[in-house]
Design a protein that fits this description.
Layout lengths: L8 E5 L3 H14 L8 E3 L5 H12 L8 E4 L12 E6 L6 H9 L12 E4 L10 H4 L31 E5 L5 E5 L6 E2 L5 E2 L1 H15 L3 H8 L2 H13 L4 H10 L7 H9 L8 H13 L4 H17 L9 H9 L2 H8 L2 H15 L6
Parallel strand pairs: 1-3, 1-4, 2-3, 4-5
Antiparallel strand pairs: 6-7, 8-9
Length: 359
């Protein structure tokens, strides 16, 4: 509080939701501002109040709230341009999540020339990791001439080692296969470091509490409203979305959907589909129900889904998709109908998208 300007927008990443509440209270007690909403908590448990606080924080014309505390919820998807400070109060063991968190500060804004990371947990060591930006390039002495770089060519007939695989045996006696990874890549709900194998095993034990069978999972996932509830419940249970995305990489499903990852964990016999294959297979059914203008929009949405993943199908992405496609919401309504009809179209087409299964 003494080092940073207390008028600058700041996100504080805490160990869990209770920690975020404690830090929020401490900040408000020590802040120069006496506004009770100077610092607020935004976590999965804060529901609509948290979402409203987040929208107000993202509004660059508003100064309150100035500081948000969170645990996992704001590591991705926060499109706030004027964030000047990021405070790290919990370990970040995933390079992917570290990049996502740092990305909260890299948004451009008028007059913003830099942002500051306040690191209390040595997470900034990730900047030295080759995964951050490749191996550092050694600068030559000033008085020497750099030799031209020779393009790399693999040695002929050389055998390269493939990525190691680990088979995880779960409580139903079946195995799931993941890529080998260091043992401290994940954190449990109680803040304890766990291996990728333990994370997968714990997730397997949690999923039956959230849905009874594959059909119920499909129904929950195919509606963006219930999908968000499911992901929030997973986060509360210690399986935040950034960690699920890492698991998606570990099970070699980066071109698939998070839905496929959950299906695979729940049922080891499940065969995943790529997002591209899912979109193409669903087009025949979906397009038969739509007029030409609707087909054009849904085709655009599917292209974004194939490119970036299921986040493009979130309800809050709909206005962004409409603006990207039609330049303005008013133009979109002239072409597709009123807001209610557009929302109905966006929700109902997803049911057909997830109806198909690999035979």
């Amino acid at each position: 509080m003494n080092y940073a300007s207390q008028n600058e927008k700041t996100i504080i990443f805490c160990a869990n939701q209770e920690h975020a509440a404690l830090i929020m209270n401490l900040v408000n007690q020590n802040a120069n501002s006496k506004d009770p909403f100077y610092c607020v908590r935004v976590t999965a448990n804060d529901g609509e109040d948290g979402d409203r606080s987040l929208r107000e924080f993202q509004d660059n014309e508003k100064t309150i709230p100035t500081i948000l505390t969170t645990s996992q919820k704001l590591s991705t998807g926060v499109d706030a341009l004027n964030i000047r400070n990021i405070v790290l109060l919990r370990p970040i063991n995933s390079m992917i999540e570290f990049k996502q968190i740092v990305g909260r500060g890299t948004r451009l804004f008028e007059g913003k020339e830099f942002f500051t990371i306040y690191d209390f947990v040595d997470a900034s060591e990730h900047f030295s990791d080759p995964e951050w930006d490749g191996e550092p390039i050694e600068e030559p002495p000033v008085d020497c001439v750099r030799e031209p770089r020779v393009p790399y060519e693999p040695e002929p007939d050389k055998t390269y080692e493939r990525k190691n695989k680990v088979k995880v045996k779960l409580r139903n006696g079946k195995e799931r296969e993941i890529q080998h990874m260091i043992s401290t890549s994940f954190w449990s709900a109680d803040g304890r470091p766990v291996s990728a194998e333990e994370f997968l095993s714990n997730l397997f034990g949690e999923l039956p509490k959230l849905f009874k069978n594959e059909e119920e999972l499909r129904k929950l996932w195919s509606d963006p409203r219930t999908r968000k509830i499911l992901l929030d419940k997973l986060e509360e249970a210690g399986f935040p979305k950034p960690d699920l995305l890492i698991l998606q990489k570990l099970v070699d499903m980066e071109k698939s959907d998070l839905y496929d990852v959950l299906e695979y964990v729940f049922n080891g016999d499940y065969v995943a589909m790529t997002r591209e294959a899912r979109a193409k297979a669903a087009e025949a059914t979906i397009f038969a129900l739509l007029n030409d203008k609707q087909k054009e929009f849904i085709s655009f949405v599917l292209s974004k889904y194939v490119e970036a993943g299921v986040d493009e199908l979130d309800q809050e992405k709909l206005p962004i998709l409409l603006k990207n496609k039609y330049q303005s919401l008013e133009d979109a309504k002239e072409i597709l109908g009123d807001t209610a009809n557009i929302s109905k179209l966006f929700i109902e087409f997803q049911e057909h998208l997830y109806r198909l299964k690999v035979a």
